[in-house]
Every structure is written in C-alpha cells, then in structure tokens.
Specification:
- With 397 residues, the chain is α/β, with parallel strands linked by helices.
- Helices cover 49% and strands 9% of the residues.
- The strands form three sheets. The chain has a five-stranded parallel β-sheet with strand order 4-5-8-3-9. A two-stranded antiparallel ribbon has the order 1-2.
- A hairpin with a 2-residue loop joins strand 1 and strand 2.
- Helix 11 crosses helix 13 and helix 14 crosses helix 15.
Length: 397
C-alpha cells in the first residue's frame, strides 16, 4: 500500500491543478470536498475489542472528572492555613481580615486542636508587618528560663551566659510574637509581660538598658480565660490588656459541614506528597459527621493520616473510636481502646483524654496519672515529633 494516504494525494493534486486558476478564483468547495470524500481509503475493520477499550477509557475519564469536580466542591474556603465554609468559620475569617491590619493585642480562645496558631499566622500574614512570626508555648519552657527566652540576657548575667542573647521580643521586631498557653506562664512573670505591653520597651536579664520594641503580641489559651483569672492562673490586669480583641475558634463538632471537606483536603495533601490517587469510601462522610471529634481538626488530620498509612487498596475507610458520637452525651471521663492499638497509641490517647477532662491543666493531669509534669511534656513532644516525621514525607504510599 502506498505510504501516502489517498486523501492527502487528492488534496495535493487539487492544489497543483488549481495554481493556474488563482485569477479566476478557487473552485467551489462542494466539488473538491466530494472528490476528497470519495478518495478516502477504507479503514481497518472496527473490532469489538477496540470498542470495549474505548468505552473503558471514556468511563475512566468521566470518573476522574467526577472526582475532580467533587474535590473542587469539597475544597473549603481558606484564611491563611485555616479552612472552613461554615457560618462560624466565615465569621472568624471576617474578623481576622478586619483586625489583621490594626495595631491590637489579640487573645485567641479555642479548644486544643482548633488551629489557634494557624489563626495567629493568618493574622500576621494579613497584617503587612515586615518582621518574622515567632511562636512560643509558655507551658513548654522551664519557668527559670522563660524570662531569658522572652526578653533576652546580657553576657555574664548568670552562670552559662557566655554571650549576649536576643530574646523572642527582639527576634519578632516589626513582626508578631505568638504566646500559646498564656495561662501556663508563671504568675510572677506575667507582671513583666504586662509592663512590656504597656510601655513598649524591654530590658534584658542582667542588663540596665531599656530597648524599644515594635512587636505585635497574639496570645492564646485552650481554657476559659475568665475562669483562669478567677482561679489565679492569669492576672486580671494582663487579661484585660490582652483582650484588645478576643477571637474565639469554634470546635469541630459545632461545624459538621466542614468535617468532610477538611478530611478531603488532608487526603489531597497526602496524595500530592506521595504521588498517589487514594479516595474515601462512600460511607466516610456520614461516619466522620457521626463522631464528636474531641481533638478537633488535629484529631481529624491524624485519623486521615492513619487511614492513609493503613490502606492497602482503594477506597480508604477510616476507623473511629466508638465512645464519642456526635449528638450523644458520652462519658467524658472514660477512654475507649480498640484491639490492635499499640501501647504508644493507648498511652497517647489516655494522656490526651485526661488533659481534655481537666481542660488542659497539666498539673492536675500529672497528679491523676501519677506521673511528673516533665513526663507529660516529654510525651507530648514525642507525639508531635512523630507527626512531624510523617508530614515531612516519611510515609510510603
């Protein structure tokens, strides 16, 4: 068979023969089109196997389009790294965008895992400040080191101070300093923090010089700050100084319409990181909404990550504890374990449920569990380290 298709030969002949008739105008299209159609060679016989393959390819493409459309609908609205489409979260986003450019001290209240640091980062990113975002957990630092960490120290001010040290206030110059778990700060040090907020100057430990600072402070707590004042854990004058603008983050159980879009967002991030195409089972949305989520968005992210790791085939099915069902009272003082959980997982769940029961009062939780306060902090640090390793890509898809 000639390597040149008949249709192409016909069109070439028409092009050659019509070159002398350019003055008179082109030949009517109907004639050339008819000749070209008659010159088409018959194609190879269409076999049923090709039809089935084409149908499978078409169906796969349609399914993929459906998945992408569903994901686009499920992708929640965002403010920084905070996400949600519920009325309560849209109001939070509105308040963040409103207060971000203003020179106000902000107190963020919300249960553990609701995203208080993400809210603080969003405020910083929308503020237009040129400095850094610096974060510190007031409960994770020994009280005797906290003053030096916050305000800095001069060389020779204490044993081991071999050089000058810039504190977090200076490191966050022209930026934002986020003080998480502000109620865990020693009561005596809260007076120094209040003076810095009022005067706008700091004095390093062991120094005499006052240094002006331009630093916005955003504080956060996972308990009722007013109750912390009444219990003597937060100074009343500092409470009112931090309350230039209070920002309350709703728990995940109060915004059920955000649960599945958030879960899909976490799964999409894992798929993108590990170049996979896992999806949820059809019943996942109803299962997720039926759970009370005491650990809020942090727990949801952990559940999705665990399901992703354990899935051997598509689709992904999440495993949830049976003791926390949305809409039921539940037993706040109980912990439910499942066969197959490791001792580390049981220990972490016991610790987190005990902290939840005591409103994150680590001292009372330590006394109840019969361990030291340092052990609680070490265990929480190990749990956070394990999650960070998974987030950094130490998971095989």
């Amino acid at each position: 068979m000639d390597s040149q298709p008949a249709l192409l030969r016909t069109l070439n002949r028409k092009g050659d023969s019509s070159s002398s008739d350019d003055v008179a105008g082109p030949e009517p299209r109907s004639s050339s089109w008819s000749e070209a159609c008659h010159a088409i060679e018959p194609v190879e016989e269409y076999r049923p196997r090709d039809a089935s393959m084409a149908e499978e390819t078409l169906c796969a493409g349609i399914r993929q389009i459906g998945v992408l459309c569903k994901r686009s609908r499920a992708t929640p609205d965002a403010c920084g790294d905070l996400r949600g489409d519920s009325v309560s979260m849209c109001e939070v986003f509105r308040q963040i965008r409103l207060i971000a450019p203003l020179d106000l001290t902000i107190m963020i209240e919300g249960e553990s895992g609701t995203g208080k640091e993400l809210a603080a980062r969003a405020i910083h990113e929308l503020s237009g400040r040129s400095g850094l975002f610096v974060a510190m957990n007031c409960g994770a630092v020994a009280s005797e080191l906290l003053a030096s960490l916050l305000f800095g120290h001069e060389r020779g001010s204490f044993t081991g101070a071999i050089r000058d040290h810039r504190g977090l206030f200076e490191q966050a110059e022209h930026g934002t300093l986020f003080l998480d778990e502000i109620t865990e700060m020693p009561y005596s040090l809260q007076a120094h923090l209040l003076r810095v907020l009022e005067s706008g100057v700091i004095r390093r430990v062991g120094g005499n010089q006052e240094r002006p600072i331009d630093c916005r402070v955003v504080a956060a707590t996972n308990c009722d700050s007013r109750r912390a004042v009444s219990e003597g854990r937060l100074r009343e004058d500092l409470f009112y100084r931090l309350m230039d603008f209070p920002l309350v983050l709703p728990p995940l159980r109060e915004r059920p319409d955000d649960i599945f879009p958030l879960a899909q967002h976490f799964l999409d991030m894992l798929n993108s990181r590990h170049e996979s195409m896992h999806c949820f089972a059809e019943t996942t949305e109803a299962d997720l909404k039926a759970y009370a989520w005491p650990g809020n968005v942090r727990e949801l992210k952990q559940v999705v990550r665990r399901a992703y790791i354990l899935c051997s085939e598509k689709p992904i099915r999440v495993e949830l504890p049976n003791g926390n069902r949305a809409g039921s009272a539940g037993d706040r003082g109980s912990v439910h374990f499942q066969v197959g959980m490791t001792f580390d997982e049981i220990e972490e769940q016991m610790l987190r449920r005990t902290l939840e029961y005591f409103d994150n009062d680590k001292t009372r939780a330590a006394e109840t569990l019969g361990i030291s306060l340092k052990t609680i902090y070490n265990r929480l640090s190990r749990c956070e380290f394990g999650r960070n390793r998974l987030d950094s890509g130490c998971v095989d898809s």
